[in-house]
Each structure stands twice: as C-alpha cells, then as structure tokens.
Design brief:
It is a single chain. The chain is globular and about 60 Å long. The longest helix is centred in the C-terminal third of the chain and has 19 residues, at about 360-375. A 7-stranded mixed beta sheet has the order 3-2-1-4-7-9-8, sandwiched between helices. Strands 5-6 form a two-stranded antiparallel sheet. It is an alpha/beta fold. It has helices spanning about 5-15, 30-35, 50-60, 75-80, 130-140, 160-170, 200-210, 215-220, 230-235, 245-255, 260-265, 325-335, 345-355, 360-375; strands at about 20-25, 40-45, 65, 90-95, 115, 120-125, 145-150, 175-180, 195-200, 290-295, 315. α4 packs across α5.
Length: about 375
C-alpha cells in the first residue's frame, strides 16, 4: 500500500543522527532524502550543477554545499567543510554519472562524449568521474562507501569497467561488492534498477569479522515480494494535479506530429505498451518511435529517465491520458515527499527527478548498513 509522506517526516528521522554522511554528486537530494529517512546526518554535499543545488537548498537549506567540480576538490577540502577528521566519517556517498552504460540508451556508445544538463552545464568524459570519486574516497577514508550507478554497468563489455571500480576500491584499503537493486522491490512504485557498490574499510571488516563471502548478505536488504510492490495507479490516482499543467502537457501532444502514435498505444492493465511492440509493425515498420511508453497502471512504473520525462515525445506517458506525467505524479513515482520542492521550469524539474536516486531504496540500503555494520562498531 502506497503511503505518501512529507518533508517533516524526513526532518524528524534525520534528527536521530544515527550515522554521518557526506554525499558527492548529490543532485537535487534524492539519496540524501533516503539517508535522512534512515536516521542519517548529512554533514556536507558536493554538487556542481546549479539547478540541482537550487533544488537541494530549497529542501535542505542548512546543509553545506560545495559547488565545485569533483575534479577540482580533494578529500581534505570535503573534510574541512564537514568539520571532521580523516577516518571519522561513517558513509561517503556518490552517484558518479555513467550514461555510456545506461540500459535506456545504447551502452558503450557514449564513451568520452560531452554530456549536457538542461541548465546548460556541460561535462566531458563523465565515465572518468567514478575514479575521481575513488580518489576523494582514499583521502576521506570513511568507514563505508556507497557508490550508485546504472544497472548496465554489470552487463557485457561494461563488466570490465565494473571490475575496475571494485579493484579501485581494493587499492585504497577497502573490500567492495556491487549489486543491482530494483526500486520497485524496496517501496518505490517504479521499476528502477541501479547498481550499488558498497565498500567497507579493511579494518572495519577485520573488527566485525566480515569477509568477502558474508559481506553481501549484511549489506543489501531483502527485496519485497512481488505481491507487495506498489503499482503506478496506487501511487498517483489520488494526486491533486494543477489543471494548467495538465492542459499544457495535453496541448503539447495535441500539437505534435507524433500524436497518432501515442493515441494508437492501447491501454493494458498488465503490460507496458510501446510503438515498437510486434503488433505495431505494419503501421510502424521501422519500430523507431522514440521509446514512448504507455505504462500498465497495475504494475510499477517503468524507469523514469532524465530526458524521457521532459515535454518531449519519448518516455513514460500517463496510462489513460495522452500526456506526460505531471511533476506531482513524478514525485510520487520516484518516492519523494509530496511537498518536496523542485526548482526551475517543467523540463528542469522533470530532469531533476529523472536523475535522482530513489530515496526509499536508499533508505532501506543505508538502514541495513547502519544496523549490520555501523551500529555494531559502537558495541
């Protein structure tokens, strides 16, 4: 059963201050929201995209934000802002982008290309950023490191990159594992798969008697049963949308040359429909209609992407209306607080949601790590 929640719930949980976190690549605060929900105390964050910082500040104004490109900062810089010493931090978090291996796109094709954000910010060679994260991690020496990335990093030729990351953590004094988690199996009404690397410092491993064989069972929470997943309909059917925003989204489709394609996508309660489905071959022989999706309302929503939920003609549409999902609906699908504040125009807000770590999934992961590792260190 889907239960909406609010920022006050996040603040109350965070007041427990059970463990400390510094988050790099913090975005608009998706992972931070998850850490706070499990009792985490966010000491500082790093985020170089201005529109993401605006959203973060709107929700968590008391958290220090380092605006620099991670390539330009050191672990000492981060420790100074957080006012702690090397080795004291409980969790160092980071979600370095790696879109070249995204399942939503053509994996391996985007290597070394420049990537752009909706506010005009550009970054080159983003696939190098995970190793910048590891460089900073070596200098911070947190007890635990959590790194989030696309699920595609575990597949095909990307597996070599996955192994380089695991080995990179090993070189700086950590034992690391990586596993794909599905947000739909952890309280989120979205089938969002992401790979979570978790690295534990060697001395912590030794103190708690953890080894490579048992660490995965201590880190990753058990997934919910299929019958306990939350459907798209459950998540958004009671959303009180802004009529003007709904009309804007309807008008966008009405005025587009692709209108016929979304109209042809039939309603199905139990199957996500795309123009590339076999039954559409005769009317769409190239099967190339921008990956539009008419979601099944009785299933978790398909994965939201940073580009797909803008006012374009790809991505997830509403299950029984010829429009994209509203911002309020997107917040529900990502598992954000109902009153979470997103900054910018519609496209910037939609992009910000599409780039986030699902908070409820991070809540479960970090809560499990606190219970089985960090809390045990205090005994």
């Amino acid at each position: 059963m889907f239960k909406p929640y609010y920022l006050d719930d996040v603040y109350k949980s965070a007041d427990q201050k059970l463990f400390t976190v510094i988050s790099t690549f913090a975005g608009g605060g998706g992972s931070s929201t998850g850490y706070k929900l499990s009792g985490g105390n966010i000491l500082a964050v790093n985020e170089f995209v201005e529109s993401a910082r605006d959203t973060y500040k709107a929700n968590y104004p008391d958290t220090p934000i380092m605006p620099d490109d991670i390539k330009q900062i050191s672990g000492d810089d981060i420790l100074k802002v957080a006012n702690i010493k090397k080795g004291e931090l409980d969790i160092l978090d980071g979600s370095p982008p790696c879109s070249a291996f995204s399942i939503a796109g053509k994996r391996d094709k985007g290597w070394d290309q420049e990537k752009s954000y909706s506010d005009g910010k550009k970054v080159e060679n983003i696939e190098d950023l995970f190793f910048e994260f590891i460089r900073v991690a070596e200098q911070v020496q947190a007890k635990v490191i959590i790194g989030e990335n696309v699920a595609g990093i575990t597949m095909g030729t990307a597996r070599e990159y996955f192994n380089r990351i695991v080995n990179g953590f090993g070189k700086i004094g950590y034992e690391a594992v990586g596993k794909v988690m599905n947000a739909a199996e952890h309280g989120t009404p979205q089938a969002r798969q992401r790979c979570f690397f978790v690295a534990i410092r060697n001395d912590v491993m030794d103190k708690l008697g953890i080894n490579f064989m048992n660490m995965e069972s201590l880190i990753y929470p058990e997934p919910n049963k299929k019958e306990d997943t939350i459907s798209l309909r459950e998540a958004i059917e009671d959303v009180d949308n802004d009529p003007e925003e709904v009309q804007m989204l309807l008008d966008f489709v009405e005025g587009s040359f692709q209108k016929k394609w979304i109209e042809l996508l039939p309603f199905s309660p139990t199957k996500h429909r795309k123009p590339s489905d076999p039954e559409f071959i005769e009317i769409n022989p190239k099967q190339s209609m921008f990956n539009m999706i008419r979601p099944a309302p009785d299933l978790p929503c398909p994965t939201l992407t940073q580009a797909g939920q803008k006012k374009g003609l790809s991505g997830v549409f509403h299950y029984d209306s010829n429009r994209k999902l509203t911002i309020k609906e997107l917040k529900r699908v990502m598992g954000l607080p109902d009153d979470f504040k997103l900054q910018g125009d519609f496209d910037q807000q939609a992009e910000r949601v599409g780039r986030m770590v699902a908070p409820l999934m991070m809540k479960e992961l970090s809560g499990n790590i606190y219970k089985n590792i960090l809390c045990q260190l205090k005994k």
